[in-house]
């Protein structure tokens, strides 16, 4: 397919490279040009302006937050430059409110908007093993399937309204943060009784919690190694905030999410802003004087 | 081995049956005699009094809480009747404070005390697939190994001090309760946005959270089926209380455990006392008016 | 003074009436005209458009939330119509972010912006007994003093940056909500032990907590009378949300505020949206099955 | 009256002195004899053994916790030495479970048991201005009135069942802790926006929160002076634990109390064990990096 791609951070670079590898024709744009050069070396074409990439079958964007999407799509004129019939696949985690706003704006322009947030860290993206939650027009999703297949191990459709995919994504990240916090508190408790973190987590993550999320973060907690930050505290706070505001829109109380928000704020306020979010376990230990 | 076994609830019956199946000579006692008859039918001998079962190589007990253990071991004279050299394997989840008290009392009597709390529901026990966390004298644990092998898939030693095994157990149960609560809140959030619980949990429990704990409880939450109660709310509250008091003994704050305690109290106070603890998800939904 | 006044809700009406009573010349505007008629009957002049009221020494606004202020000041052109030298006294509780934005916009226009949020319910406003927290240019505050004196018992200056006054106001409302929640939980505890709410609150609000906030809300809790809603749940949620976002701007964790947010969401989701925020006590009792 | 008095800590000394000053005949006993000497200098007689003080009209005890009361009344034989008809006024804050146990034990002995926990710090006790919550037999309370009048400004009866008075007391202390925490969080929020703690608290504690509790603790928070500890963190933790267990006995969730418990544990674990409980405000500030 002809694919335009905007947003070449850690995730975007890995995803775009997989599209090229799968034989798609990819035109890229990124705010800082260095990342573009890397992709050009792998076979992409570079665009001089973001509006250039829309002459394609499919536009894919992987941007950091609502504001970055707003900047590219609205302020820099990408949506206005798009032709009716284009499909826009937004891979980023945006707020459910903004997802709804984007859906309306695209509809007015005759562009299909597919929310397609992904589960997986950069190394998972590099292997083409992302799990992709998609919501939007079924026919458009079907057309985008070759691109989705190139970057993920599975596509999980959740209906037509794009914000549903975003709700699933932020709820999933909330569950990850909860798993980290629960491990952190449990490790503080057992360490206080003389059991090493590695020993405790070895038992739990090989039995009841033998899942990727627990094994990966459990290893970081056991090693007390919170850097480099695969998913830094401020991004984690952003996602918990998105979960809380998506919940608030429908009056859903989330006491665990509230605890996580407070803990992430404290971690950031007390010097942990460049740690991975698994550093929540360090906070749990510090609170116990460990 | 010659094994005395006290406590034939759902878990105890399944465990004792596996001991018989493995060829051990088992003498049982239980407060209500019906359960003894079942085991006798499978090859056990019934004791008229609990003190009779101690003339064995190994005493195993599976009782519901501290008070029941205290009643049998102290008030009914089982420990006083024991000969020096006996090994007592306590399979139940008791408080860390009581675990330490038991250890001392056994030592004074010359009986080896092994804390051996297990992870696994009755059906797992029936399959002989429990995970057993053990703490106590290493030589005694080695002697008990034939019995442990008959009832569990793996034994996880965590040192000599018995209360360590109990700390691991209550911390593990705390992690289970946290996983349930996190699923419950996440499902409330996504349901409010129109995503069915089954759909959301299908995604999460087959990707990041593809672990036994999430799959099992996730299925109950998706089906909104909280009865029969594999692990009823009041027992869950007991275990969270044990986690909190074990933590308090070393000044370990556990904000997630505090939320769980409040939620379990509310669930019980508002009619959910005979539900499985996965009913915490129902509470999360009800709070959101769902 | 010549005073323009926009926003004639329960609070605004009472405040404007006191300005008239003190001899000021007051021109009013309100979105729905009925409220204007009431004030005209007391001696005010009605404006046909909000922009008309700015030809005055002082503009006072009492609007419900950020969006209402934005609508009047920006969308309806009130700020654009203002002459340099005008003083704008904003009595409403707005977000600290918006307070800063307003300050800048007014400065560019040469208009003095004074944040002047008030503590006090409508009946307190009617008695001219409000406590007014002010922040802004000291000279402008001095000029506005005759108006402030007419509506409040005391003016509390907190510096030049307007958002400080808003931070104080939302922090104060957070403390009120905390007092309500604490009474609610304490009453649930003592009722469960057989002590009537009125008896318990009689002791506490006449001894350690002999303060207006406790006496007022305590009386509502003792009577279980949460309607009419002097300060309805949704407004309370708005204010707690403002406190949380003001805190988040500086990475300040507020665990009590998080609990309050969850509880207010639940109260609203389960049918309490038209109750006074003291209805939090009803939620505390319901959770205990009382 | 003839009064026996056991327990001469800060509170007990001040109370016993007021009894002497009011003309009562007081015989004292205390574990460490120094405190007895002080009281003898003021007119008391010293007992050689605690059992000596029971030959009186009234026995008053002011001991630190359940264990201390158990030690004196049961282990040291004070209750066994008492004559039927004696009235025992227990001024301490004990658990509701122990209050019920004490009531039964006294009844079997023919001794009237009155729970009479007090609100007020040592300086308030010294002025004879305590507020005393009493529960027990009405006739016995009437007989004890001369003593109660000598030590408190008011007696608040809450019925016959002694544990009710204890429930009121621990609920009141929970409200105090909540007020401190709320001030601490509010001060962290406003300090982060540039408002000094003293300035913020000056406004709030002279308007909505013009109550003794807020003024007293507010002054300590404004001065950041948490020592000497009028009420040290570990005692505060004990009282919150008593509130939580009294609540748990009737399935009453108390989310604020849970937050307080976690915060007190953290304060103690991180070096604040010898601070006054108003040091919770320091923890709130530290969490925000202030």
Describe the protein.
The structure is a homotetramer of 290-residue chains. With 290 residues, the first copy, chain A, is α/β, with parallel strands linked by helices. Chain A folds into two domains: 2-160, NAD(P)-binding Rossmann-like Domain (Rossmann fold, 3-Layer(aba) Sandwich); 166-287, N-(1-d-carboxylethyl)-l-norvaline Dehydrogenase, domain 2 (Orthogonal Bundle). Helix content of chain A is 56%, strand content 13%. Chain A is built from 13 helices and nine strands. In chain A, the strands form two sheets. Chain A has a six-stranded parallel sheet with strand order 3-2-1-4-5-6, sandwiched between helices. A three-stranded mixed sheet of chain A has the order 7-8-9. In chain A, strand 2, helix 2 (33-41) and strand 3 (45-46) form a beta-alpha-beta unit. In chain A, helix 8 packs across helix 10 and helix 9 packs antiparallel against helix 10. The longest helix of chain A has 31 residues, at 162-192. The N and C termini of chain A lie far apart (55 Å). The model of chain A has no long low-confidence stretch (mean pLDDT 96). Chains in contact: A-B, A-C, A-D, B-C, B-D, C-D. Chains A and C meet through helix 11 and helix 12 of A and helix 11 and helix 12 of C.
């Amino acid at each position: 397919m002809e694919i335009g791609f905007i947003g070449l951070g850690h995730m975007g670079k890995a995803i775009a490279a997989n599209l090229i590898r799968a034989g798609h024709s990819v035109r890229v744009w990124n705010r800082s040009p260095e990342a573009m050069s890397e992709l050009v070396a792998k076979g992409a074409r570079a665009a001089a302006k973001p509006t250039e990439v829309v002459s394609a079958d499919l536009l894919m964007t992987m941007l950091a937050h609502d504001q970055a999407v707003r900047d590219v799509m609205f302020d820099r004129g990408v949506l206005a430059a798009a032709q009716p019939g284009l499909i826009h696949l937004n891979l980023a985690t945006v707020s459910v409110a903004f997802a709804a706003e984007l859906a309306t704006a695209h509809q007015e322009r005759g562009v299909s908007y597919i929310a397609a947030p992904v589960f997986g860290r950069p190394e998972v993206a590099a292997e083409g093993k992302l799990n992709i939650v998609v919501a939007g027009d079924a026919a458009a999703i079907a057309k985008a399937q070759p691109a989705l297949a190139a970057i993920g191990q599975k596509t999980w459709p959740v209906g037509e309204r794009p914000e549903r995919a975003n709700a699933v994504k932020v709820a999933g990240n909330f569950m990850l943060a909860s798993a980290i916090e629960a491990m952190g508190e449990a490790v503080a408790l057992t360490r206080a009784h003389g059991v090493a973190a590695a020993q405790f987590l070895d038992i739990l993550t090989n039995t009841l919690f033998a899942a990727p999320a627990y094994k990966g973060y459990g290893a970081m907690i056991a090693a007390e190694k919170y850097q480099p930050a695969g998913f830094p505290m401020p991004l984690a706070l952003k996602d918990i905030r998105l979960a809380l505001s998506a919940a608030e829109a429908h009056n859903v109380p989330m006491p665990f999410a509230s605890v996580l928000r407070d803990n992430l704020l404290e971690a950031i306020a007390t010097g942990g802003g460049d740690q991975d979010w698994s550093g929540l376990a360090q906070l749990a230990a510090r609170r116990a004087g460990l």
